[in-house]
């Protein structure tokens, strides 16, 4: 396992992080989830990402139980706040009330006194940004988080949040966007702004929800037990990539992966790690052996010629429109 600084901060994290969105607390049983977390630790992963909304809090609880007994100083634990965690009107968003209540609930579930990174899971158009950043600053000053970050914010929102955080002397060091060889919407605006500000990307879905493994075939039903068959939410997120034209182009990557001595999944993870603004790629798993495969992408350097050929193959189907970040963001209620 190789390690990188999170943006320009002093925090060092494993360049492959383990995330438990979708799987833990919903798609797989706790014993299987625990086995995956143990496999991640054995593979050298020290960075773990979760969120209060994943499986209605169960994902945080599973992670907390699985990491019990580990040396806390040797781990980097990240979580997030924004999405609804209860039925009340204030059980959502980035108000001071919700942030303060949510960090305490997350810490209880994670069985830790602090998280290394506390992230705004989305931008909240209904709460003044000043209120949000001031609340995050107080979380840091209370010792409940070391750093703060955001997820799926536009370049403009990142700049505004970073400016306020700097005024308050709290370290806003990261953004967590979707990023893969099929979903490149951050490259034109978010990455340049982040690089300028010293913010690193912690990217999710580097394998495009499993599509870049090549296991989904054009014209064929999804494999049994795959993300595309998960009725708890996984199928919804992967559906955007399950077009025959996308799958046909993805199949053309197999010879390139073989040429590089990698599996298609390893090629996909290695691809995102070639971006110097990426601090870590988040992988998930429903089986421990998936972790061992993906971790082998750490430290891989892809040749320029191979990267050009990947670009040529995927150019017709890769999404690069920077407006997609704003299109997928929450909208203020009228």
TrEMBL record:
InterPro entries: AKR, K_chnl_volt-dep_bsu_KCNAB-rel, NAD(P)_OxRdtase_dom_sf, NADP_OxRdtase_dom. It holds the Pfam family Aldo_ket_red. GO terms for cellular component: cytosol. Signal peptide: none annotated. One of its GO terms (biological process) is methylglyoxal catabolic process. GO terms for molecular function: oxidoreductase activity. The keyword Oxidoreductase applies. Keywords: NADP, Oxidoreductase. Residues 15-313 form the NADP-dependent oxidoreductase domain. It comes from the Bacteria. The keyword Oxidoreductase applies. SUPFAM superfamilies: NAD(P)-linked oxidoreductase (SSF51430). PANTHER family: HYPERKINETIC, ISOFORM M, L-GLYCERALDEHYDE 3-PHOSPHATE REDUCTASE. Belongs to the shaker potassium channel beta subunit family. This is Predicted oxidoreductase. It comes from Saccharopolyspora shandongensis.
């Amino acid at each position: 396992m190789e390690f990188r600084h999170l943006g320009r901060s002093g925090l060092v994290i494993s360049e492959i992080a383990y995330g438990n969105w979708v799987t833990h607390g919903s798609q797989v049983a706790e014993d299987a989830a625990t086995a995956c977390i143990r496999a991640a630790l054995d593979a050298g992963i020290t960075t773990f990402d979760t969120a209060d909304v994943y499986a209605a809090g169960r994902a945080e609880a599973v992670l907390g139980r699985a990491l019990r007994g580990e040396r806390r100083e040797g781990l980097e634990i990240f979580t997030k706040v924004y999405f609804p965690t209860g039925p009340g009107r204030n059980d959502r968003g980035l108000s001071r009330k919700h942030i303060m209540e949510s960090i305490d609930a997350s810490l209880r579930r994670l069985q830790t006194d602090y998280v290394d990174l506390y992230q705004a899971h989305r931008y909240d158009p209904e709460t003044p940004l000043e209120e949000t950043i001031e609340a995050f600053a107080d979380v840091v000053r209370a010792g409940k988080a070391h750093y703060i970050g955001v997820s799926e914010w536009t370049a403009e929102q990142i700049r505004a949040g970073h400016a306020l955080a700097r005024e308050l002397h709290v370290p806003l060091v990261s953004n967590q966007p979707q990023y893969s060889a099929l979903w490149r919407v951050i490259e034109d605006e978010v990455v340049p702004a982040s690089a300028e500000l010293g913010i690193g990307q912690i990217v999710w879905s580097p394998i495009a929800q499993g599509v870049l493994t090549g296991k989904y075939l054009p014209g064929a039903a999804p494999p049994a037990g795959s993300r595309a068959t998960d009725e708890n939410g996984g199928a919804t997120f992967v559906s955007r990539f399950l077009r025959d034209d996308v799958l046909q182009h993805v199949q053309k990557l197999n010879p390139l992966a073989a040429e590089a001595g990698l599996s298609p999944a390893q090629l996909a993870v290695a691809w995102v790690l070639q971006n110097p603004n990426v601090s870590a790629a988040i992988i998930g798993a429903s089986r421990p052996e998936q972790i061992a495969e993906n971790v082998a992408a750490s430290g891989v350097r892809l040749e320029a010629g191979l990267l050009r050929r990947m670009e040529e193959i995927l150019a017709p189907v890769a999404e690069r429109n920077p407006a997609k970040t704003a299109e997928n963001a929450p909208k203020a209620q009228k």
